[in-house]
Specification:
Blueprint: E1 2-6, H1 13-20, E2 29-42, E3 48-66, H2 68-79, E4 83-92, E5 95-104, E6 111-114, H3 117-137, H4 144-167, E7 185-195, E8 199-207, E9 218-224, E10 228-235, E11 240-245, H5 249-254, E12 262-263, E13 265-268, H6 275-287, E14 291-300, E15 311-318, E16 327-328, E17 337-343, H7 344-352, H8 359-377
Parallel strand pairs: 1-5, 10-15
Antiparallel strand pairs: 1-3, 2-3, 2-4, 2-6, 4-5, 7-8, 8-9, 10-11, 10-13, 11-12, 11-17, 14-15, 16-17
Helix pairs in contact: 1-3, 3-4
């Protein structure tokens, strides 16, 4: 049996139990400290690292009675992120004992402020538990380094899942419908035949029918992606919009002879980020724009029969200046983006002639046509 000292996110019991795959007996947990060390946030990350600091102490938990299977799962969870185990002496109320401790590989992460578990639980706890659920499904099937490479998208999918659950059911009395909720679905199994930047999930489930009976168990395949912020930049003074152009694999795979569609600014809502914050960030990254005001157009599923993707669509008021054909994009994401500034009259002509092929752009364009006079009258 192994003794392990944890000082960071694994002190959150739901996460620990998700990783080891079973409930943890309270008798296996004891408050402990590691002298002359301090847990600090890893710069720009949602987890801590342990750094030597004379006179400080890192608060944590001593986990005892861990079997080989537990340690295999824990090592899988931590292993791809550049952590290694080292034996250290930790202090508990009952004395001093030796335990394994995870340390980050030298130079991998830069330390920031002191780590606070309560802050982490409030912002990241539910998201990281959801991410761990997907990660641990790959235990025994994928290498930890591969999971670490995939983790940004696993984390983003988890954040979208948590956001959907926090939003609650649509209960406005103006909505027609049966009133059925997620509680009327009985899950029977989940498989992921493909997972990388995106994922494909096969859900085996039954659901309540409108006549009150339960359906047979059915299989439904879903393309799983993170929430996205979508933005149509509009300059109400010059009465013009900005569209972007870039190569898109979807039209290419369909056989489209012009796989460089005109589209709005768009990007993933990163974990810990609001859709509004994502819209502002993407405006800067893809088009070099600073927005002064956002108008929400729609929060909607583009194709609920086949994908979990959820769009937060905005019109953003800004100053487009006299630019044209600017280049943008994030080089590390292999983005090659060209922007185009169009008068609203030309943009509406393209809409009316059905020459714009990206659905969220069409939706935002028609919304803008309806609200354009109001936006132009704003101070």
């Amino acid at each position: 049996m192994t003794a392990l000292f944890v000082y960071g996110t694994l002190r959150h019991l739901p996460l620990l139990e998700m990783v080891v795959g079973h409930p943890v007996d309270a008798r296996q947990l004891e408050q402990a400290v590691l002298p002359d060390h301090l847990a600090r946030w890893a710069q720009g990350q949602a987890f801590p690292i342990l750094v030597p600091e004379t006179g400080a102490q890192a608060n944590g938990l001593l986990l005892t009675g861990l079997g080989d299977a537990d340690m295999a799962r824990l090592n899988f969870y931590e292993g791809g992120f550049g952590y290694h185990l080292a034996l250290r002496r930790v202090h508990t109320q009952t004395g001093v004992t030796e335990a394994q401790v995870w340390f980050a590989d030298a130079g991998l992460w830069q330390p920031a402020d002191a780590f606070d578990l309560t802050d982490w639980q409030a912002r990241w706890g539910a998201i990281n538990v959801a991410a761990a659920s997907e990660m641990m499904d790959y235990f025994g099937h994928r290498d930890p380094t591969e999971i670490a490479r995939m983790y940004p998208m696993i984390h983003a999918r988890a954040a979208s899942n948590v956001a959907a659950r926090l939003a609650g059911p649509q209960t406005d009395p103006a909505l027609p419908g049966s009133g059925m909720t997620r509680a009327d679905v009985t899950p029977q199994g989940l498989a992921r035949p493909y997972a990388d930047f995106f994922a494909v999930e096969e859900h085996h489930l039954s659901f309540r029918r409108f006549d009150g009976t339960q359906s047979p168990v059915v299989k439904r395949a879903v393309f799983v992606a993170a929430d996205a912020a979508i933005l149509l930049p509009y300059d109400p003074v010059r009465d013009s919009v900005l569209l972007i152009e870039q190569f898109r694999a979807g039209p290419y795979a369909r056989g489209d002879l012009s796989p460089w569609p005109l589209e709005p600014v768009a990007g993933r809502v990163d974990p810990g980020e609001t859709p509004e914050q994502a819209a502002h960030r993407e405006a800067g990254e893809e088009a070099g724009l600073v927005l002064r005001h956002l108008e929400r157009v729609s929060s909607s599923y583009p194709s609920p029969g086949s994908t979990s993707e959820f769009f937060h669509i905005f019109v953003g008021l800004c100053d487009l200046g006299d630019r044209s054909a600017d280049l943008g994009g994030v080089e590390t994401e292999d983005e090659d983006i060209r922007s185009h500034i169009l008068s609203f009259a030309r943009f509406q002509d393209l809409l009316d002639r059905d020459l714009l092929t990206v659905g969220p752009l069409v939706l935002a364009g028609h919304w803008l046509a309806r609200h354009r006079a109001r936006l132009r009258a704003m101070p």
